[in-house]
């Protein structure tokens, strides 16, 4: 069912209330998501993006109830990832000659995923325009690496809407459609979580792109992303948030993350938290067991932190696999200007702290102090040394 956005622009996407995982199993969702597709009916009628593949049949059938598919003048594909383009093959079966406007790399992506050799591709780049009638134009903007090489955005003059693709969205199912109608706490939480886990690796590119968009001097009434709520009241607010987040953001927070075998490393983690809370009450402290907490949520807390403290016992001359996987994901997110300290228990060889330090350095963290190692379970003399080490680190 369509929902009107403004004038002749409607939302025709899919509210995915029960979606729990994204990017395979790599992104855990707490509030569902939406795949936002948009129908514009000016003198030319066109579609901007489709929905995720599992909903392709429902999407096409719903679209048929709204318009005669043969009246679609063209389809814009802002990004070839399957959550955006998954219903496209089913739609092309209905209207095989319809023009598709996309970037050159999106053409490669779509052909690679769907064997779309016979589709009517039309390649566009920043500055290209299409007259759509009633004095309005559709302008194309390259958004390369936000977050795929094929990404772009489109801007509709007159209604002054930026269809921003994967920028400025959230994984958040919002029946009311608009950000000003959504739960504000969830909206802020999910906007940040989305930025941290998907766009932060490309923060320098994002800052340049925001400046490029500003220099185009496009009036902006609405930002309509590919996921989550649509920004219509003060849409600049989310752009300003992205600028803040992308510019080495941190708060006076220290986050402790660890996993443990027989609770020795756990005892160290909890002692460190208590010492920071006692000696540095102006700092916020967060503590997480990696195996018991959603890693995407932990990454948000690390993003907000000026420093992190990471622990694992030594296992088979290495670290726990849960911590190893976590550190690999941490490396992918490319956090900057943050310090780190490692800790862990051992019984035999004791390599874990050195391995943690090396992995943290590889992830871009400043490892200033030698980490905390305890033989077997920590004792009173260990806690005294740990307290001193924390004072040096903080």
Detailed description of the structure:
The chain has 2 domains: 3-246, Ribonuclease Z/Hydroxyacylglutathione hydrolase-like (Metallo-beta-lactamase, Chain A, 4-Layer Sandwich); 254-393, Rossmann fold (3-Layer(aba) Sandwich), CATH 3.40.50. The longest helix is centred in the middle third of the chain and has 16 residues, at 184-199. It is elongated and about 80 Å long. Helix 8 (264-279) crosses helix 12 (380-393). A hairpin with a 4-residue loop joins strand 14 and strand 15 (161-165). The strands form 5 sheets. It has a 7-stranded mixed β-sheet with strand order 1-2-7-8-9-10-11. The chain is α/β, with parallel strands linked by helices and 394 residues long. It has 12 helices and 22 strands. The termini are far apart. The model has no long low-confidence stretch (mean pLDDT 95).
Detail the topology: elements first, then pairings.
Elements: E1 3-6, E2 9-11, E3 14-16, E4 21-22, E5 27-28, E6 33-35, E7 38-41, E8 45-48, H1 56-66, E9 74-76, H2 82-85, H3 88-94, E10 99-102, H4 104-114, E11 120-123, E12 129-133, E13 136-142, E14 152-156, E15 161-165, H5 184-199, H6 203-215, E16 222-225, H7 236-246, E17 253-258, H8 264-279, E18 284-289, H9 295-304, E19 307-311, H10 321-333, E20 339-346, H11 352-362, E21 366-367, E22 372-375, H12 380-393
Parallel strand pairs: 8-9, 9-10, 10-11, 15-16, 17-18, 17-19, 19-20, 20-21, 20-22
Antiparallel strand pairs: 1-2, 2-7, 3-6, 4-5, 7-8, 12-13, 13-14, 14-15
């Amino acid at each position: 069912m369509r929902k009107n956005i403004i004038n002749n622009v409607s939302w025709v996407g899919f509210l995915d209330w029960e979606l729990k995982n994204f990017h395979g199993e790599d992104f855990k969702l707490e509030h569902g998501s939406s795949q936002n597709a948009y129908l514009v009916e000016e003198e030319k009628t066109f579609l901007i993006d489709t929905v995720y593949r599992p909903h392709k049949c429902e999407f096409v059938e719903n679209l048929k109830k709204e318009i005669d598919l043969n009246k679609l003048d063209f389809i814009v594909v802002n990004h070839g990832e399957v959550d955006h383009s998954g219903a496209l093959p089913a739609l092309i079966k209905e209207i095989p000659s319809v023009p598709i406007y996309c970037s050159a790399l999106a053409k490669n992506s779509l052909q690679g995923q769907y064997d779309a050799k016979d589709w009517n591709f039309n390649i566009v780049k920043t500055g290209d325009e299409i007259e759509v009638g009633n004095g309005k134009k559709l302008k194309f903007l390259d958004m390369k690496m936000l977050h795929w090489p094929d990404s772009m955005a489109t801007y509709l003059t007159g209604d002054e809407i930026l269809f921003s693709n994967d920028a400025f969205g959230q994984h958040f199912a919002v029946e009311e459609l608009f950000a000003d109608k959504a739960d504000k706490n969830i909206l802020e939480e999910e906007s940040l979580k989305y930025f941290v886990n998907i766009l932060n690796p490309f923060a320098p590119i994002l800052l340049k792109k925001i400046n490029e968009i500003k220099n185009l001097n496009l009036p902006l009434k609405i930002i309509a992303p590919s996921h989550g709520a649509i920004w219509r009241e003060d849409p600049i607010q989310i752009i300003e948030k992205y600028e803040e987040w992308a510019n080495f953001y941190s708060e006076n927070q220290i986050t402790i993350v660890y996993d443990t075998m027989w609770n020795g490393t756990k005892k160290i983690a909890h002692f460190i938290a208590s010492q920071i809370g006692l000696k540095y009450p102006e700092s916020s402290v967060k503590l997480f067991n990696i195996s018991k907490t959603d890693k995407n949520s932990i990454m948000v807390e690390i993003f907000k932190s000026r420093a992190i403290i990471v622990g694992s016992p030594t296992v088979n001359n290495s670290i726990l696999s849960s911590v190893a996987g976590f550190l690999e994901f941490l490396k992918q997110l490319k956090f900057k200007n943050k310090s780190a300290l490692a800790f862990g228990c051992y019984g035999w060889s004791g390599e874990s702290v050195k391995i943690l330090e090396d992995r943290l350095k590889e992830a871009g963290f400043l490892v200033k102090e030698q980490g905390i190692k305890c033989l077997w379970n920590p004792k009173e003399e260990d806690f005294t040394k740990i307290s001193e080490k924390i004072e040096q680190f903080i």
